[in-house]
Amino acid sequence: MLKTTFKNFSPAVEMRNPVMFVTEISMVISFIVTIDPRLFALPETPVYMDFYISVTVLLFLTLVFSNVGTAISEGKSKAITSSLQKLTATITAHLVTEEGVKDVKSSDLHVGDELVVRKNEIIPIDGEIMMGSAYVNDSSITGESRPVMKVEGDSVTGSTILLSDEMHMRVTQNPGDTYIDKMIQIVKNTTRTKTPNEIALTVLLSGLTLVFVIVVAAVYATSTAYAAPVNIMILIVLLIALIPTTIGGLLPAIGIASINTVSQFNIIAKSGKAVENAGDVDTIILDKTGTITIGEREAVKLIPNKNISVEEFATACYMCSIDDSTKEGLSIVKLSESMGASHDLPAGHQFVKFSPETKYSGIKFGNSYIFKGALKSLKEKFNLSDNFMEAVCKEISSRGGTAIPVAKDGTFLGVIELNDMLKPGIKDRINELHKMEIKTVMCTGDDEITAAFMSRESGIDNYVANSTPIDKYNVVKSEKENFRMVAMVGDGTNDAPALAFADVGLAMNSGTQAAKEAANMIDIDNNPTKLIDLIFLGKQILITRGALTTFSIANDVAKYFVIIPAAFYIFPQLAYLNILGLSDPLLAITSALIFNTIIIPALIPLALRGVKFRPSSANEILGRNILLYGIGGIITPFVVISIIYFLLGSVGVAW
Amino acid sequence: MSSSFASVGQGSFWQVFFVDHRAVSGLLIILIYLLLISIIAFIFSGYIADLYLDREVRLRKYTHYLIDFFEKLIGPASKRNMKFKEYMANLVFFNAVAAIMAFVVIFYFNRNVTPVGTYSVNLSLAVHTVVSFITNTDLQHYSNPFRFSAFAQMFGLMGLMLFAPVTGFAASLAFVRGVRTNEGHLGNFYHDFFVSLFDLFLPLTLLFTIFFALEGLPETLLYYLKITVPVTNVPGYLPLGPIATFQSFETLGTNGGGFYGANAAFPLANPSWISNITEFVAFTLIPLASIISLGKVFGNRRFGTMLYSVIMVIFLIASIVTFYSELRGIPVFQNLGILYSGNMLGKETSLGIAQSSVFNVGATLTSTGIVNSSLIDYTPGGILGIITGLLMNDPLGGVGTSVINIFTYVIFTAFLASLLIGKLPEMIGFKLGSKEIKYSTLSLITHPLIVLIPLGIILVEPFLVSGMINPEPQRVTELFYEFLTSASNNGSEIGGFATNTALFNYLDSIIMLLGRYLILGIQLYIAQIFSVRSPRGESPNTVSVGSSYFGLMLFGVMIGIGLLSFFPVLALGPLLSFANDLHLFAGVMVFGH
User: Fold this and answer.
1) How far apart are the first and last CA of chain B?
2) Where are chain B's structural domains?
3) Model confidence over B542-573: pLDDT tens digits?
4) CB contact under 8 A, B459 and A221
5) Which of residues 183-202 of B touch A (CB under 8 A)?
6) What are the percentages of helix, strand and coil residues in chain B, rounded to 5?
7) How many Å lie between the alpha carbon of A194 and the closest alpha carbon of chain B?
């Protein structure tokens, strides 16, 4: 870190940041003055020599501090990339060829190769499961040690560990193009390139710096008119105090720190701009399942039809769900067992799998069947009609639950009530979005009644029920036509167009390749709720920049009132500008420079962590931040400079 | 006690109150002035909004013949839509033609034979005068109206006084159009020019010429009046001319170039408090109404109200600073125990301190620069209030430039405000990219740069200046003021040294040209960037430009940029003079004990 700090001293690096470049030039001049004040015809008394030395040291420290901030954040992002780089080490892969399984290096693999991965082995490269299902430990990427179930068609990431069973996979990325390689590349790139917003701010700061250079030159010129030219060192102090060194020094650190925070969130942002855009979102499109609700629906109640006993219904539920390995199915089996279902299966049974077309699943034996599924499809398929059961289904929907009717040989046996819980805390998050006046839209495949219930429960503004991926795209489009910035989450391939069209698209890592490519951010943890965190984060970055800029410029007021009367102490009449009443001019000037220097390390934690963001309306935030950083920025230096002056005086520094 | 005083003393309660509390009565006068211009500007802003929205104004029924005629005269160039480059090129070209014609008139056809001698202008003064009048600065390095023949006054100077504000308003039409629409162009300069001329400027000047003539301003082709003073029997020659017209051009066009050297401080140019108030209304009318109209133009009335409030707060503060400083006057006099009613030096007695203060502050807040009293006789505190407007490059602005100037401040503020609430920069529904921020920063820093650089050079090489009569702090103030007024195209002047020298004539000319065309160019370029964007509605979670917090911030930015750029020079100029006065005050106190 120390090395990076000093490497950044090179003028070539500082050139990119005009504020620090001016500081560096000033330091060089003050160094020369300190060595030989006669070169500039400046006084050489011990008092002045002390002053010159302190100015040079303080300028040096200003540069160090500003670079430390950058070095800390660069260090962090290097740590992230190097930990990723370790994962890309070459390992052995079992390649399936026509002659049988062959061991090759993972770096020699190609797209389309078929591999076998065995239990407890590291998956050598990105791919897609062709055969088999297994638990995978993603902890090397996500840090989450809970194993994840992967089935045929799911994508797996290289460097994760297969915990159980054996599977066949097809390579989908060439070595060097893998997910982790891309991550490393992205982290490296995003920390290096400036976002348009940073460019704008840099221009603004450069403009101010230019004005202050001229102002200070004009101060010199004016003082010559009184035949009392100001000491060059005092001018240098005035210049450094005036130019926005605080924000200038910390600007790069803020940018890199934000990317680091995103990485710590286990989100890969494809550019720094994407993160800033997240802060700018007006509308957020959320999926119901997994985002607003936990997404693991559980059977909570078995409601038998009239004339059907509980045990009979429980047995039927058991029979039609025993083959269903989804979480829902497992929970139904568990519940029906507890309700006294018998475990006997009829001879010659045959399981019917769920398909999106039929929308039901169950068991067949002889001419009989027991199916569970969507009410509508069961009714259509088997010409069923039962007012009582339909009413029960409707009632369950209106409570936000999901009703799964079970039918046997032309009659409804009963309804399984599944419940999907709201995620804990989601209501508060959505409430926060409301406070920020961000519009929320929920997309769900559920029916109208459930969707209405869920959006009412969670406080969502709008919902789209029975939604298909094309609906999502239409929502994005209509919001964008109203010039609103849209953020959304997606995972499936058919989400890709919407993801690409949205201003902020967060793809789930478990999603398809197309979705991940279309999105501008990828969440490794597959936690869609993070989209809300991203909005906070984006805002935080911008606020941090704005706050430090405002603070930095507001500080100038106090510095003027300290330095100008001190620099022109030869005019005792100007003492009324010396509102702090600092009687020792050189000490006052030094105190101002000390303030200017120490404020940078004092604000490094703020720059790296970001300004605390409390969700509320734009106007409230503006009012609060003007008070805090604008008015506060005017008052703070007055107080702190007085304290520094007093402390210096009390330890016996007197000039 | 004389009877006349007694009658006042025994008058009604309010009569006594207002005489005894001159601070209150003065403040009341200032408030009445500001209230009056506010009401008139609010009423007139609807008309200006229609012009900005390219709507057919009612007057067009009569003026379209004129507009069509002149557009035909210009030819096809007056028909096509222009992008920034072409628009700006035509604007500069058209101005240059006018300037050269005026120069020819002033320099070559201006050997003015008068009873008191033959006058002409030298090259540098001619250049300075032409540049000064075409850039809407109207800084005058001459004082005697006899310098110019009737012909040169009417066709040279008045022509330019018509040209400059009309060009400014045309530019603002283009600016607003660029921001408002998304067709990628700024419109047609010639069309904008003739619309501004016939639909706005000429009807108003006609109206105000009648007002002024009725209020007693001479409107004559008589060139001078010979007056023989009875006792000495020496004939004096009083210059005359179409002063009512001149005055309406000067004020409505925020020009500020006076027929007489003393400008509105000369009795014939401003004979009474009624003409004073009429002139005040005239020079604030278009700038203030244009700013208020922005609310209507962008469908966000609170935006217009916010801009109006910010300007008025600055106006009020500056007026009060000047008023109280003048009322307090020079402490020495007060402490000598003399009956002292404030600093009346250089002020018209019929107007008094309050009316002089608010008038001169208004003149520097707009780019008019008209004076109704002598600025060199103001106390340092009084100058501080008057200089406020110049520090901010005329926040209320000139005809047209008012809208453009304030808009650049708004962009700059919106950038910071958006960041503070965690949004990417946005204002009234427009996303702001790095380019807009870049150019608005550039246009805002140009002003301090073109003031401070020449000031620094002149101060380092003091031998360049001659005829300085005042001590050091005032000298700095005077020089500073000279460059400030040139850079902000204001034209108000303290003087105090020989300004009519080749150096100052040419240097000022360069500053004025940069202050006008460079800044205007940058600003129109911003409009060009906006011209391809379509606004989105202001969403609730963005910076609301109509909110009081935004107003507060805009106020802070305007004051801040002015103060941060100029504080040290202010400290060594007016603030030091101010301190010297205090010092003197302290000395007298000690002496008194």
Assistant:
1) 31
2) 20-592
3) 888 889 999 999 999 999 988 889 999 988 88
4) yes
5) none
6) 70, 5, 30
7) 12
C-alpha span between B440 and B530 (Å, rounded):
12
Question: If you measure CA to CA, which chain B residue comes closest to A241?
Answer: B564
Interface of A with B in 236-255 (CB under 8 A): 238, 242
Would an 8 Å CB–CB cutoff place B422 in contact with chain A? yes
Query: B175 in contact with A at a CB cutoff of 8 Å?
Result: no
Chain-wide mean pLDDT for chain B? Answer: 88
Do A92-173 and A267-294+422-524 come out as alike in CATH topology?
no
- Check CB contact of A529 with chain B, cutoff 8 Å: no
Is A287 noted as a catalytic residue in this protein? yes
Q: What backbone phi and psi angles, to 5 degrees, belong to A56?
A: -60, -45
Q: Which of A138, A154, A287, A491 is catalytic?
A: A287
**CA–CA distance, B202 with B222 (Å, rounded to integer):** 23
pLDDT at position B430, please? 84
Q: Cβ A437–B476 below 8 Å, yes or no?
A: no
What DSSP assignment string belongs to B315-355?
A: HHHHHHHHHHHHHH--HHHHHTT----S--TTS-TTTHHHH
Q: Is the Cβ pair A280, B423 closer than 8 Å?
A: yes
Name the minimum distance, in Å, from the CA of A205 to any CA of chain B.
Answer: 9
Residue B11 reports pLDDT greater than 80: no
In which band, very low, low, confident or very high, does the pLDDT at B316 lie, cut at 50, 70 and 90? Answer: very high
pLDDT of amino acid B2: 35
Q: How much is the pTM?
A: 0.85
Domain A92-173 sits in CATH 2.70.150.10:
yes
In sequence order, what DSSP letters do the residues of A560-593 get, joined into one string?
HHHHHHHHTTT-GGGGGG-TT----HHHHHHHHH
Determine which of B306, B423, B479 to mutate to test the interface with A (most A C-beta atoms within 10 Å): B423
Domain A298-419 falls in which CATH fold?
A: Calcium-transporting ATPase, cytoplasmic domain N (3.40.1110)
Question: What pLDDT score does B143 carry?
Answer: 81
Chain A hits for B444, CB-CB cut-off 8 Å, are 207
* Chain B residues whose beta carbon lies within 8 Å of the beta carbon of residue A223: 572
Cβ atoms A262, A256 nearer than 8 A:
no
Q: What is the pLDDT of residue B447?
A: 94
* Chain A partners within 8 Å of B428 (Cβ): none
> ipTM score of the complex?
0.90
Tell me which chain A residues have a C-beta less than 8 angstroms from the C-beta of B456. 214, 217-218, 220-222
Instruction: Write out the CATH class of domain A267-294+422-524.
Output: alpha beta
Contacts of residue B112, Cβ cutoff 8 Å, sequence gap at least 6: B118, B119, B120, B146, B147, B148, B149, B152
Q: Which of A91, A109, A101 is nearest to A159 (CA)?
A: A91
* pLDDT beneath 50, residues of chain A: none
Tokens (6 digits) for A482: 């109203």
The per-residue pLDDT for B556 is 93
Name the minimum distance, in Å, from the CA of B477 to any CA of chain A: 10
Given CA atoms B423, B427, B428, B431 in this order, what sign does their dihedral have?
A: negative
| Annotated domain spans of chain A | 2-80+185-262+536-650, 92-173, 267-294+422-524, 298-419
Q: Which of B391, B424, B584 to mutate against chain A (most A CBs within 10 Å)?
A: B424
Dig out the tokens for A103 from the structure.
């061991």
